[in-house]
Write a structure and sequence with these properties.
By secondary structure, this protein is an alpha+beta fold. Helix content is 32%, strand content 39%. It contains two helices and four strands; from the N terminus they run E-H-E-E-H-E. The chain has a four-stranded antiparallel beta sheet with strand order 2-3-1-4, covered by helices on one side. The chain is globular. The structure holds copper (II) ion (CU). Copper (II) ion binds at residues 12-13, 15-16.
């Protein structure tokens, strides 16, 4: 299990949060996603083989901007 914390730019309301959660959850191997509008961050739990790039792509596909991230 891996934990990824990543900044998400461009969210303005809870609909944005729901959209980010939906797109990130669709990535293979993602177990849980919690996104905070206040912090502009997503907290993601994944299988070990999930790459940060696949998470970034999902955020971009949702229409938002992935930023700095931490793994651990
Ligand atoms: Cu919104």
């Amino acid at each position: 299990m891996k934990k990824i914390k990543i900044e998400v730019g461009g969210m303005t309301c809870e609909h944005c949060v729901a959209r980010v959660n939906k797109f990130v959850k669709n990535v293979n191997g993602v177990k849980d996603v919690k996104t905070s509008l206040k912090e502009n961050k997503s907290y993601i739990e994944t299988n070990d083989d999930v790459s940060v790039d696949s998470i970034k792509s999902a955020i971009e596909d949702a229409g938002y901007k992935p930023g700095k991230y931490e793994i651990g």
